[in-house]
Specification:
Helix 1 (17-27) crosses helix 5 (105-132) and helix 2 crosses helix 5 (105-132). The protein starts with 7 loop residues before the first strand and ends in a 17-residue tail after the last helix. It is α+β, with helices and mostly antiparallel strands. Strand 7 and strand 8 (195-197) form a beta hairpin. The chain has helices spanning 17-27, 40-54, 58-61, 94-101, 105-132, 211-216, 271-280, and strands at 8-10, 30-34, 83-88, 143-152, 162-167, 173-177, 185-188, 195-197, 205-209, 226-229, 236-246. It has one domain (8-247): Jelly Rolls (Sandwich). InterPro entries: DIOX_N (IPR026992), IPNS-like_FE2OG_OXY (IPR044861), IPNS-like_sf (IPR027443), Iron_ascorbate_oxido_reductase (IPR050231), Oxoglu/Fe-dep_dioxygenase_dom (IPR005123). Pfam families: 2OG-FeII_Oxy, DIOX_N.
């Protein structure tokens, strides 16, 4: 029996791309994309920059600490002893991030090139998801985005343990550049509940649906639960773009996705408020969605 795995979708497909993307969001909440437009050379350069930033002294990395959970620098701690993270919380503020860490001109150039490339890809994904839903427009235009860089300090003691525990993402989509040398990402199958490994495929990126995607799609998309698992004592890096939501209005399902068979499931949601509820109530696996259900759902 063949091992189950998530779809791999060709972003240069001419016919039916939007429908295929929507189907993957509904059935898996996770898929890989190939021919996505980000050069492999740029991906390799961004990984090298990421590694160099984590090599900075802790006191320098802490210049980007943020009061909001999930923002800024996150150091290793008793809850996540193998994990360390850095983030550019508004991708338009890349220069501020670079200034705080005193990065070189070359590193700054790579970071900004990577942000532009992955933001363009996000825009393309948003347009195709709209097309696949029978809608038109740039879905993610004017939305907040965060670029997060992650380092997993795996060692002999961490083998057989999680780098990051089971969770859903508090975003609409996450576009992930995973480590080509160290696997570990696992997602929960929607039907069986089994963990499915998302092993690296050269030149591809991983896309995850998060809680905001489930709200916008009126429950059609699967906000996929996932974790990172340590199989071997090797340092692992990943780089992810999180597409959160509109910056100046609440998120809700378009009227075209609401009908007699699909009544509106969620009230309009302020994305920042949703993230605050998730973190403050420690509801990291999608349970916070139930707090925003409509009375008719």
């Amino acid at each position: 029996m063949a091992t189950k795995t998530v779809p791999v979708i060709d972003m240069q497909k001419v016919d039916g791309l939007g429908v295929e993307l929507v189907k993957a969001c509904e059935e898996w909440g996770c898929f890989r994309i190939q021919n996505h437009g980000i050069p492999e050379e740029l991906m390799a350069e961004m990984k090298a920059v990421t590694a160099s930033l984590f090599d900075l002294p802790v006191e320098i990395k802490r210049r980007t600490v943020h009061k909001e959970p999930g923002h800024g620098y996150v150091g290793r701690n008793p809850v996540t002893p193998f994990f360390e993270g850095l983030s550019i919380d508004g991708i338009s503020s890349a220069d501020e991030f670079c200034d705080r860490l005193d990065v070189s001109g070359h590193q700054r150039e790579i970071i900004k090139r990577y942000i532009k490339a992955i933001r363009d890809l996000a825009g393309n994904l948003g347009q195709k998801l709209m097309e696949g839903s029978g809608l038109a427009g740039d879905l993610f235009d004017g939305w907040s985005h965060q670029l997060r860089m992650n380092k997993y300090h795996y060692c002999p003691e961490s083998v057989g343990l999680t780098g990051i525990d089971l969770h859903t993402d508090p975003s609409f989509l996450t576009i992930l550049q995973d480590d080509e040398n160290v696997n570990g990402l696992q997602v929960v199958d929607k039907i069986s509940g089994d963990f499915v490994p998302i092993d690296h495929v050269s030149g591809t990126l991983v896309v995850n649906v998060g809680d905001i995607g489930k709200i916008w799609s009126n429950g059609r998309y699967y906000s996929v639960k996932h974790r990172t698992w340590c199989f071997e004592p090797k340092t692992r890096y990943s780089i992810s773009l999180h597409i959160f939501g509109p910056t100046n209005k609440k998120i809700e399902a378009p009227s075209e996705l609401v009908d007699t068979d699909h009544p509106r499931l969620y009230v309009p949601v302020n994305v920042d408020e949703y993230r605050h509820v998730r973190y403050s109530m420690r509801m990291r696996t999608g349970g916070a969605l139930d707090l925003f259900r409509t009375t008719e759902a």
